[in-house]
Amino acid sequence: MKKQKLYIDTSAVAYLDEQTSPKEMKDMLILWDKIKQGGYDVILSEITLAEIYDNLNLEKVKYLAKYLSEIIFDTVRVNDEVRKIADLVKNNGMLVSDKHQNDRLHIGCAVVYGCDILVSLNFKHLVNVRTIKGVRGIASLGGYSSIDILPPAMLIEEGDD
Predict the structure, then answer these.
(1) Weakest-pLDDT range from 2-6, 42-46, 110-114
(2) For the domain 5-153, what is the CATH superfamily, name and number?
(3) How do 41-45 and 74-76 pair as beta strands?
(4) How many helices (H) and strands (E) does the chain have?
(5) Global pTM exceeds 0.90
(6) Annotated domain spans of the chain
(7) How many whole angstroms from its chain centre is CA 43?
């Protein structure tokens, strides 16, 4: 069976070191172990990496960089096709504020680069029914593969902890 391709957004990577949310952190660490064991193909975008490395908390940057060095991933760039999907998200009434531009670009990257799942812990903007259904519709109408937006907990099985 073909491995699923995951696009991991910044919120998910950041939860590898989020002591204030122990359940979500634990779920992300379990998923990370599955990734390290080759259970998934992973895509990160230049946006995810920039958001991680531009963090003002240098200790957190070092910590997350150590985790990133443990896995194999492809880095994808924002291009015109990604921007087109991001614009469609906005034009369809989702994430319309300029402050959500990177969220729209995360979606665009995941869709354009053929990811099966966008992994996020951004429940307010990405992991919610409205955005999930909207993104599925945009992907389908644009001739792209179906995509899910899921938190790490949905990718780990009972007994993985």
Answers:
(1) 2-6
(2) 5'-nuclease (3.40.50.1010)
(3) parallel
(4) 7, 5
(5) yes
(6) 5-153
(7) 8
